[in-house]
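Z., the sequence and structure:
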Amino acid sequence: MTLELTGGPDFAAPAPKTPRWTRYYAGHAVTFGCPARTSERTPRVWSGRGLGLPEAELAGFAAQLRRVMRNDAYWLARAACEDRYAGDARVWSPGRYDDEDGFVYFAGPCTHRDPWPGYRPARAFTIALPHVRGLRIRVAAYLAG
């Protein structure tokens, strides 16, 4: 017996009703939104100090970072940035896995609207475009490791 598979629109996976990630570019920053998350799996942000993502979401987030780096806004922001080390990996800490909640935390320049200290669930968070490269390096290193 032979099984023959063919591709095409009949076999294409349907797009989710709510996207897993959204991106919005403003000035020299990108805001990531994550509308399709339960509160337990929503990214956590300590404004100005770091970002926490569910370990299962890291590969998808790495793809989002890659898409940001392909955007013209990223390259314009990198060219305009006076800090030539802004895109270095050292701006972000290596990923630290927390086995209590299944999140991986990266200390670095990530912000959101909540003024309170500590990691808080955030449906949207912002990263300056020049810092995206460093976070992409750290996420890739964690996934490879």
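Residues 58-70 form the longest helix (13 residues). The CA atoms of residues 62 and 136 lie 6 Å apart.

Let me know what you think.
H.
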